[in-house]
Write a structure and sequence with these properties.
Largest sheet: none
Oligomer: single chain
Helix content: 40-55%
Shape: rod-shaped
Radius of gyration: 29 Å
């Protein structure tokens, strides 16, 4: 038995990608930028606390 001829169907591919709103949570550019800024502020505050008090952060918190 021979199979009948089936023409090749072509589907057109989209030419542009849809513009989706980036979520504000999870691993995305917005969250990583916010996390980096918070880390820089925390590090600067830690240095400031150590300079002003003359103690390390753990001593200042009473953990040492």
């Amino acid at each position: 038995m021979t199979q009948g001829f089936q023409p090749k169907t072509t589907q057109s591919q989209p030419t542009t990608t849809p513009k989706l709103e980036e979520p504000k949570f999870g691993f995305n550019e917005y969250a990583e930028r916010l996390n980096g800024r918070a880390a820089m502020i925390g590090f600067a505050l830690t240095l400031l606390i150590e300079y002003v008090t003359g103690q390390g952060l753990l001593s200042w918190l009473g953990l040492n």
